[in-house]
Amino acid sequence: MDGRTNERTGMRKDWQQEHELLAAAGFVVAAGLTEAELLAAESAIGSRMPPDLRQFLSEGLPIGSGFPNWREPRSEEILAQLEGPFEGIAFDIEHNAFWWASWGPRPLALADAIELARRQFAAVPRLIPIYGHRYIPAEPCISGNPVYSVYQTDVIYYGMNLSNYLRCEFAPSATEEATEEEPRTIRFWDELVA
Question: Would you call 10 helix, strand, or coil by DSSP?
Fold first, then answer.
């Protein structure tokens, strides 16, 4: 492979082009994470990273506003990004009458409704922050998961996979090969996609 995505597995040989793209967009790309740093980040996340994200971060760590600094995985910034998807749902439960039908009847008391939502939310695929409010699901733990923009319960696809997302977000004028494929289905999150 020459840096392109393997159509079948989503695995990549290298992420040099994406790192160069980020550098051209004004971000610093620091040395990649070591295996120990990746394990510390996964501990903070509470889940393994998909292989493509692990490889991307092991080859270079984007540094700059919006990118999580995985060298400090327990920082307030990363913890806030990890909590962001649930906090957005809780906001919409309180202010926008959001309630997911599969959670059962909504409790009358707001605190009870949010507690029930939190318990239900613990079972959905964990989202890993990539940049700002762009996330990749940790589940399934295979390469090629889609990237979502998650703002409260407003969820949209932002990339068919990690490479596609980085190219669309940071080099929108670059030509991206057209594909007839649909993004991989991710339980719960795909049902929220607008």
Answer: coil
